[in-house]
Amino acid sequence: MADALRISVVIPVKDDDTELARCLQALARQTRPADEVIVVDNGSTDASAGVARALGARVVRCEAPGIPAASATGYDAAVGDLVLRLDADCVPDAAWVGAMAAAFAARPDVAAFTGGARFVDGPRALRTPLAAVYLGAYAAVMTLTLGHLPLFGSNLGMRRTAWRGIRSSVHRDDPELHDDMDLAFHLGEFGRIRLLRGATMGMSMRPFTSGVAFGRRVARGLRTVLVHLPRDFPPVRWTRRALRAALRGTRLGRSRAT
Question: Fewer beta carbons below 10 Å: N end or C end of the chain?
């Protein structure tokens, strides 16, 4: 069943040709290759688009600024049953695509999977503890906010049908949002998000080596939460999801009884 699933990989990029080449080379070494790799060029002035084409990716241009617009453009263009997403400075394990395919095949009830990551650069002694602290804090805060596991933009996959159901409601036109957090708000409202086990993702420490860059990430995270208020005020959201889950359970029970 996993082999029958067509897989698209989406990579938003802007002026990151060297890191993009490394990412695409890692994707070419996958034990289960993707059926298509889409690089969304978000106004690059370097050789990103040329590098993508030279390494076999399909290049899609996105004129609207920001990662939310670029990611959504890639998801719209994908033709696979599954749409995987990572960043241009990521290095996926060789089993990443295959692990995603196997996870979705085993859990037809799950709309999206998200995985962890490790740093591949920066001070070697700090790579493991910093990744654990960063991802652990993000998961803890956002799980309380959302009422379910969040999505991590450097390592996520979703069913294309799930994306089609929420594509008109995501905040794709706001460049100051975190697209993965926004996606989690909308996707988690109606579908299950689960943790991907069995394959991790290498990522760059670059966004965390500058106080300005890190501060921008925090500000965007806060903004992403605020644009979903008051509708997604945590207790309101938790109650709404609990009622919806109870309704699904009731319907399932009735269908089994008949």
Answer: C
Using alpha carbons, select from 29, 212, 198 the residue that is nearest to residue 101.
198
Residue 105 has pLDDT above 90, yes or no: yes
Q: How far is CA 70 from CA 13, 30, 42, 196, in A?
A: 8, 24, 6, 24
Task: Round to whole Å and give the CA distance between 188 and 193.
Answer: 6
Question: What is the reported pLDDT for 184?
Answer: 98
Which pair of structure tokens corresponds to residue 226?
């605020």
Query: Is residue 12 within 8 Å of residue 88, measured between CB atoms?
Result: yes
| pTM assigned to the model | 0.93
Q: What is the token pair recorded at 62?
A: 């996105």
174 token code pair? 């706001």
227 CA to centre of own chain: 19
Tens-digit pLDDT profile for residues 82-104: 999 999 999 999 999 999 999 99
For residue 34, the SS3 value is coil
Distance between CA atoms of 146 and 174, rounded to whole angstroms? 20
H-helix segments, the chain: 17-28, 48-54, 67-77, 96-106, 124-146, 160-166, 179-190, 211-226, 234-257
Burial of 242-253, coded b for 16+ CB within 10 Å and e otherwise, reads eeeeeeeeeeee
User: What values do phi and psi take at 201, rounded to 5?
Assistant: -125, 130
DSSP bridge partners of 204: none
Neighbours of 211 (CB within 10 A): 8
pLDDT of 199 reads 80
